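Lab notebook, bench 4. We co-purified these components, and the gel suggests they stay together. Before we commit to crystallization screens, I want a quick structural picture of the whole thing.
Request: model the full complex, all chains together.
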Amino acid sequence: MLKIKNLHASIEDQKILNGINLEVNAGEVHAIMGPNGSGKSTLASVLAGREDYEVSEGEISLNEADLIDMAPEERAREGVFLAFQYPVEIPGVSNINFLKTAINEKRAHHNQDPMAAKDFLKMVKEKAALVELDDKLKNRSVNEGFSGGEKKRNEIFQMAVLEPKLAILDETDSGLDIDALRIVANGVNTLKSKDNATIVITHYQRLLDYIVPDFVHVLYKGKIVKSGTKELALELEEKGYDWIKQELGETIEG
Amino acid sequence: MAYTEDDLKEELKDKKYEFGFTTEIESDKIPVGLNEDIVKLISSKKNEPQWLLNYRLKAFKVWQSMTEPDWAHVKYEKPDFQSISYYAAPKQKIELESLDDVDPELRKTMDKLGISMEEQKRLSGVAVDFVMDSVSVATSFKEKLGELGIIFCSFGEAVQEHPELVQKYMGTVVPTTDNFYAALNSAVFTDGSFCYIPKGVKCPMELSTYFRINEANTGQFERTLVVADAGSYCSYLEGCTAPARDENQLHAAVVELIALDDAEIKYSTVQNWFPGDENGKGGVFNFVTKRGLCEKGAKISWTQVETGSAVTWKYPSCILKGDNSVGEFYSVAVTNNFQQADTGTKMIHIGKNTKSTIISKGISAGKSHNSYRGLVKIGKGASNARNFSQCDSLLMSDRCGAHTFPYIECENSSAKVEHEATTSKIGEDQIFYCLQRGIDEEKAISLIVNGYAKEVLNQLPMEFAVEAQKLLEISLEGSVG
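Here is the predicted assembly.
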């Protein structure tokens, strides 16, 4: 589904990604881990098409379609969803109105009529239940005055409504207590199908107890330096990242 | 050189101002220039009584002794008052009882403005008075209002039919000596709207006036006078447009509201005068004096959505004279390209337990400057007066400016005055968040801006809130940078 080949990207002349190769198939969950500053969030932003980042080399394709030339809103309509690490507040715009606009933009892109209000409200109700989102949050302004946990739940709620092909969760576990973590993970697991894929970016193994990855990759200095299965995450939790740095010391520096 | 359709098309290329058409109607226009004879000529053309001519002449004398104010945070070339024609009327018989007699060209203008009278009549139940250049052309719904004793007509007609009311109230809230432009208006005003709501009557429909400057080199100087007698209520809306022209046009209006004991007036404005092109050429100078007087327990609420004009200078105010009276001011002011706005309000607390609320939302884009200027004055006798002010500014580009000039004068120690202000730049993070959900940039900006202005837009009557939202969108197209 997603193919990343030799991806190089920089921001303000500072090189962050140094040749990433990654292939994600439908039905798979990939976890990306790595120390601070290794480029995890940059990778998420580049996949979503944030214009602050410049892609100098490499290819990204989603179901054979070239993503790099696509505007961020087109990528979204084609099924790329980013659950933000720090979801922004949009005062005065109700959550429900925001979502209605988003879903109808996507439908228009696929030559579908706007969703009938009744159907939309019914769907919203179902999806909100999935992440146990408080009913009144639906009518509040987008993320305004939400607690950290509510914001993250709201991201997964939006994901449930928009039904992406590729979901990227950027440190969705940060700032969540154990109960919220369980709810969010449960939402993600329920949405998982053989037709979509998920990339989970995280610092901690803890999230992966709940969202079990098929593959784990370690990102370091803008490159995937080690890949494995979920056991790799356990090993990282136990030993930290230093052993990988040491293992790579020569090759990276050289 | 004559202004042609092609020029118009050229100017409208960017689709930013869609009301820039001119209407080819023969018009009765007097020579340019201003002197006592011109004032007399206007008065005689309007067939006015002697007291009104005297009023005008007195105002003209006062105006001659005044100088144009320059304290506002705006820069522009001062208009040449001798090169303006002070009277232009569409040449046609005015039949107020039937709309069928209205000149077809004029009807077309109304249609383009989206105020097909019959539609309005049938669908929305809005009574409309249409003022083109200087003269009020048609007032709809008159009969139905008449049954309730409500008078809603052109100012000129009110002078003829209800001189006692006009003479009693005109100039009581905005005296001729008030300021340079109010004095000018008092001398040369040509028409406008008049409204009287009798005691205890709740006006069942929105009253609405559309103003339009059509002729070149004319100024528009209209007067609006709304009197709500004790215990009555009305909601009044005005809309304004003008053709897109290279030269600046002057609009200097006076609006006076009088709310007698326990009466309520809600006054909403959607102002969309031509703002000038993207290089700052042309556009309307909008120098307006608006003020309301509240007697005991009365309430006046101003709501304005200002998207047009090259230069705006306007402070809809409330004099809270009666005990327990209430004043409100809700404003969204948008400036783009080279537009300049200096707008705000004055809340003058005189009576006891008076309350006022100010919500001002400025939006600046392009190279424009947007200023809020407000005065909250609590007089000695205004025990327990309360004011809450909130002034927010939203910046859309790196080259625009937002300025806030709040003045507070408090002479009574039992008063409570609160002021909150914020300035923010439209966030790239907010826009990216929308993009990532599949919402394109234009729609994202529209969502964010409408969300920002929501508190004010919610105050508008339903059908005009929609119009105002569209206007915000058009005014800010392609303006993030």
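Chain B is about 25% helix and 35% strand. Worth comparing against the SEC data before the next meeting. The interface with chain A takes residues 427-430, 432-441, 443, 447-448, 450-455 of chain B (CB under 8 Å).
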